[in-house]
Target: RNA polymerase sigma-70 factor (ECF subfamily)
Amino acid sequence: MQVKMMRKETFCPAEISHLSKEQQLVWLMEEYGDMIVRLAYSYVKQKQAAEDISQEVFISCFNSLDRFQKKSSYKTWLYRITVNKCKDYVKSWSYKHIRYKDFFSSILMKNPSPDMQGMDREEKEVIFSKVLFLPIKLREVIIFHYYEEMSVNEISDLLSINSNTVKTRLHRAKKQLKGLLEGDGNDGR
Model:
């Protein structure tokens, strides 16, 4: 029996439920893998830790795939798992006792939003490096809104917070980011 290779662009999320659990996982990893690593990196600021978290996310996904109720999109579901894994990691001993390495330039904005497409790579790297100085609550809304192009309502659902809280955090994040870019020394901590 010859096995046909599944191509991710031939399936949309609604059509993958008929696939085997393993095929569903492969599709999800191909579709969202890079995004999950970028999101994890925005929290933990370490390449290896972000990749490890990504693996943990997909292990959790595989273990829970048959219980996924489709109340949200696969993307939102994977983001929620990733955010939770990252928050657990940030609270861990490992995170608090290991020095960070710069990695952002290799994962920086693979799919930049239209607002950011006009900037050159150096400008984007400077801005992203400053985004990483923001507190997690502000950093995550900036990443989701500008780098992952999520709406305020999507971010609100993902983080289980009020949409006005998302707007407030975006406003505060932009204000702190502006201060960081102007060099006032306020790194948000």
